[in-house]
Predict the structure of ABC transporter related.
Amino acid sequence: MHALRLVLDHGNTRRPFWSLEAHGIFETGIHLVSGDVGSGKSTLALMMAGLHAPTSGAVVREGIRSVLVSFQFPEFHVTGLSVAEECASWGFEPGAVIRQAGIDVLPEIPVLSLSRGELKRLHLACILSKECDLLLLDEPFSSLDCPAKEEVCRQISRRAGGITVIFTHEQGIFPEIDHLWEITGGSLVDCGRMPDGLRHWQHAPPLARLLVETGRIPASLTPKGLQEAACRIRD
Ligand SMILES: Nc1ncnc2c1ncn2[C@@H]1O[C@H](COP(=O)(O)OP(=O)(O)OP(=O)(O)O)[C@@H](O)[C@H]1O
């Protein structure tokens, strides 16, 4: 596998009433970028994908030959009329995708007749089955219930190789995360690798924050990792 790096070299973007400064290096692994509503997560995802040019600075994709972006709203990705056509547009048979998505739909029905959550699961099943060097997932958990979030997390955690970046304000359910980032005060902040990065993560969910404050640093942000830390006798 060739070395992959996405370098944000003071990649700044400005709009009349908003700006974002993004500086840092994303290496192979699973990255979590958290931030409040409107903080710039989607804009940063577009910048990293090469779909939004920085106003100043640069975004350098070293060794990255393939990029996939998943937008928050699954309708943005639809190109087929039926579920089967939609799966085919990704190069997949509908049966396998429908099984992986865990939804109960027929391949011949119009893809836009699916509920938002079903469509999101179908889209995620397709995109998570593709191999790529850089996978950018903007709010992958939106529209999903807890079991579906957990299944998507398992699929993300299984990704081997490549750079995966999750942009989200999710506070409950996470996959295995290697590196924590957050957007705060108009800047991308590198909180650091897990688990030490937890100490610097302002957007940490309440349970993770409590565990850190009580000296039980979770090794992982997965539900199992948080449970293990919560059940641990204080260090
Ligand atoms: N095309 C645009 N033109 C002008 N301003 C925009 C445009 N797109 C986004 N913005 C502004 O840029 C800022 C960042 O938006 P962005 O969608 O990146 O935030 P976000 O963190 O992804 O939000 P959310 O959590 O709601 O998805 C917001 O203030 C938004 O109003």
Notes: The pocket of adenosine-5'-triphosphate is lined by residues 15, 18, 35, 37-43, 169 (CB under 6 Å).
